[in-house]
Amino acid sequence: MVNQIPVPQAKYELLTDVRQPRWRTQVLCLALVSLILGVLFVTRAWLGIVILRSPRAKTLDTETLTDNAKIATWLRRARMYAESTKENQNADRNNSISSPQHYNTNSSGQIIVCYYTISSDLNTFWELSPSHIDPDLCTHIIVGFAGVVNCSLDLGSNSSIYKEVIALKKLQPQLRVMISAGGSNELHLGFSEMVKNHANRKRFIRSVLNVTKTFGFDGLDLDWEFPAWLGADEREKLHFVQLLEELRREFYRATKTLILSVAVAAPQAIVDQSYMVAEMAKYVDFVNLMSYDYHFYVWYYPITGLNAPLFSHAAESGYLSTLNVNYSVHYWLSKGMPREKLIVGIPTYGHNYRLDNPQNHDLLAPANGFGELGKMGFVSYPTVCEFLQNGAKSVFKHESKVPYAYKDREWISYDDVTSVYYKAEWIRRNNFGGAMILSLNVDDWNNTCKFNESFPLTRTVSKILRYQAD
Asked: Half-sphere exposure (CA, 13 Å, Cβ side) for 343?
């Protein structure tokens, strides 16, 4: 006799038999998907590390950068500028602010601020002795970089070099020589600790007054990159203004009135996060706008770009259209920095890329690392000249008023005499405070470029701002 199962129970058992294997299948699929995603995530992270550390990319981790202080600061700033592109979600995309305005007034008061970096200490691996500097080129020479250690200005072991640069004033009494605090010590949070409270700031100011009096410096430049940026304490922005106010007060009381300047960022996202511009303007004599490093090879944005374009080009839109000198300068003006206090940065170095395909060598071409020339993406102007002498082709982007050069897989964005001329003329006609050169070290000081004169880029700026009438 066959046992009969009531119909409702039969339906229930049938439903159970059908659902049970589906539930198991779903769990198995979910586990497989999770495993695949996990593998992909780990693989991507591993590839990123390999790319960042590979010789082809020539980049280094933070600890290595600290040891390799000759290039660490420039590389760190370039990377933070690149990071600002990812942090721009709150930035205003309306770039109408960048419309050029022309003020054809007498610009005889414009200054030329030239950075000279001590190669044994940081920032540059291109040797330049103070004895090779033309004292008539610049109105101001800023020597860098001193550290901020234990809330005090620390010159390290380079006292003799500082003295040699200051001695140039004997040849040109109108020259002003300043000391810059910043550089590789920023990796050790020197500024953050120093500005934290009044006592720490007072200790720093006392050390500054001691150093400037002992050596005969004409002032101080602060190169903090950057207050309150990317997870730092937001109060650093306020503390920085307090430091400037306290420095200004003590500088007025000094035996001779000292000059106070600040090296400041160009990208809008960093400006908004790091500076109280209108308040800063009350206390500084001028700001040195770091209007370069707008484009630099990074693995998450692996395409060629211009280091320091004067204007944007047609292929750029949105935030990318703000990454140029013209926009940055007018943005600083809109935030409250007076025109006469804006010193516009001009680089004497370029950035290089390794092209994916040597046949694709225009702007926005795919790249897979730094080029072979120079070091970790930085190329001095003499190296660019040698590149061109060895058969590289130069292309001048008239929209942006800067050139780039390429040969095989090497691609370099740089400034030449023509682009520097355009920038200096633009600075002069708009009656900004002047131009800043970064740096004398990487200009062609020993005539590699065959112009029959030293420092051709800096000299071009000097001729226009100091000796050319309207």
From this structure: 28
**Distance between CA atoms of residues 71 and 222, nearest Å:** 19
To the nearest 10 degrees (0 to 180), the angle between helices 456-467 and 417-429 is 20
Nearest to 300 by CA among 87, 91, 90: 87
Strands 342-347 and 410-413: unpaired
Average pLDDT over residues 148-167: 93
pLDDT at 350 over 60: yes
Across 413-436, average pLDDT: 98
What ranges do the domains of the chain cover? Answer: 108-348+415-466
State the CB neighbour count (10 A cutoff) for residue 125: 18
Q: Are 144 and 221 in contact (CB under 8 A)?
A: yes
3-state DSSP assignment of residue 287: strand
Distances in Å between the alpha carbon of 434 and those of 263, 357, 364, 414? 14, 40, 31, 21
How far, CA to CA in Å, does 438 sit from each of 79, 130, 195, 263, 443? 17, 16, 26, 11, 9
> Partners of 64 in the beta sheet?
none
Q: Which of 83, 87, 225, 425 is labelled catalytic?
A: 225
Paired with 366 in beta bridges are: 303
Tokens of 292: 């370069």
Q: Is there a catalytic annotation at residue 225?
A: yes
CB 97 within 8 A of CB 125: no
**Distances from the Cα of 470 to the Cα of 302, 330, 345, 346, 419, angstroms:** 43, 22, 22, 21, 20
What values do phi and psi take at 40, rounded to 5?
-65, -40
Burial class (CB in 10 A: 0-12, 13-18, 19+), 206: middle
Which residue in the block uniquely carries the two structure tokens 């131009």?
Answer: 435
CATH class of the structural domain 108-348+415-466? alpha beta
- In 3-state terms, what secondary structure has residue 354? strand
Burial of 203: CB neighbours in 10 Å, binned 0-12, 13-18, 19+: middle
Specify which residues 413 forms β-bridges with.
351, 404
Collect all residues with Cβ–Cβ distance below 8 Å to 162 and sequence separation of at least 6.
143, 155, 179, 215, 217
Residue length of the chain? 470
DSSP string across 78-95: HHHHHHHHHT-TTS---G
pLDDT tens readout for residues 250-279? 999 988 889 999 999 999 999 999 999 999
| Spatial distance between the Cα atoms of 266 and 263, rounded to a whole number of angstroms | 10
Residues 6+ apart with CB under 8 A from 435: 110, 111, 112, 113, 343, 344, 345, 346, 423, 424, 427, 461, 465
What pTM does this model have?
0.82
- Residue 226 corresponds to which tokens in the numbers above? 């950057």
